Amino acid sequence: MNTDQLEKVKTATGFFAALDQSGGSTPGALAEYGIGRDRYSTDAEMFDFVHAMRTRVYTSPAFDGTRVIASILFQQTMQREVDGLPTARYLWERKNVVPILKVDLGLADETDGVQLMKPIGNLDDSLEQAIKHGVFGTKMRSVIKDANEAGIGAIVEQQFRYGDRIRAAGLVPILEPEVSIASPHKEQAETLLRDAISKHVEALPAEAMIMVKLTIPTQRDLYADLAADPRVLRVLALSGGYSRDEACALLVHDHAMIASFSRALLEGLTDGQTDDQFNARLNASIAQIYEASVHKD
Fold first, then answer.
1. Which of 8, 139, 186, 213 is catalytic?
2. Does the pLDDT of residue 169 top 90, yes or no?
3. Model confidence band, residue 265 (pLDDT cutoffs 50, 70, 90)
């Protein structure tokens, strides 16, 4: 493990940039960026467009390690290059941003009010590739739709089970059991989730290191005890369908969390903008998310 990366993740002020849209979410991300389906006819063309979009973000003067601690990558992004370097190396060596890899393969069908992750059959290979590329950690997402104790228990168990394998490989996992902001019993689901995560964290060895990425809770500072545990490097907040303004307005009141936004980070960026327009919009977005992550009310 890169000790400089570990120190940055543990102590730096700022937030995580999540640019890890996968095949299922890429068309929507491109549409918001101003690239409709009429501009590509194959997956290869689609991924070329999304890599160009991510490259534009990463190479922008607004994007660097002074405000962005880490960035989460889609596997194909890791395997490509930015400005002549493999993406993870570019982020760390040129921008001082810690690279993290999304490893899940999407969601299973809903059961007991949750969507578990599909089996990650290629996990060992993904971890091997991540280590070769100098990646610090991983991220994997599942979704909680309602306050079902059995379902939430299953989702947390699955996250920690994969997390154990990731830690054994020498990487730090980000566990992301997202509570849907449309859940009819969101606050109750979050309390059940907090309790389930806490039990699993208590069972971890003293030297274990994980991160968690969670929906901004209805109850402020719900995850404060979790954030205070030395085995939890960061408690990250996902934007979860909120606009950037909405997500930042909620995050600024939660002292346990910093942002790990994806769609909310890219909001307002378009393919047709000039470089000056693009960089100014990205700079404003980064500044807003940084402020909500660092300067709390």
1. 213
2. yes
3. very high
pLDDT above 90 (res 23): no
Assess whether 213 carries a catalytic annotation: yes
Specify the residue for token string 């030297």. Answer: 207
Instruction: Determine which one of 8, 95, 139, 176 is catalytic.
Output: 176
pLDDT score, position 87: 97
- Domain segments of the chain: what residues? 3-294
List residues bridging with 212 in a β-sheet: 175, 235
Beta strands in the chain (DSSP E): 15-19, 68-73, 81-82, 85-86, 98-102, 114-115, 137-144, 172-179, 210-215, 232-238, 258-261
Distance between start and end Cα atoms, the chain:
35
The mean-pLDDT minimum among 16-30, 119-133, 162-176, 263-277 falls in 16-30
128 included as an active-site residue: no
Please state which CATH number belongs to domain 3-294: 3.20.20.70
| 159 vs 197: CA distance, rounded Å | 10
Q: What is the Cα–Cα distance from 266 to 227, expressed in whole angstroms?
A: 27
Q: Are 259 and 16 in contact (CB under 8 A)?
A: yes
Residues sharing a CB contact under 8 Å with residue 292, sequence separation 6 or more, in sequence order: 247, 248, 249, 251, 252, 259
Structure-block tokens of residue 200? 């699993």
- Residues 269-288: tens digit of each pLDDT: 999 999 999 999 999 999 99
**In angstroms, rounded to a whole number, what is the distance separating the alpha carbons of residues 292 and 288?**
6
Query: pLDDT tens across 119-163, in order?
Result: 999 999 999 999 999 999 999 999 999 999 999 999 999 999 999
> Exposed (0-12), middle (13-18) or buried (19+): which is 27, by Cβ within 10 Å?
middle
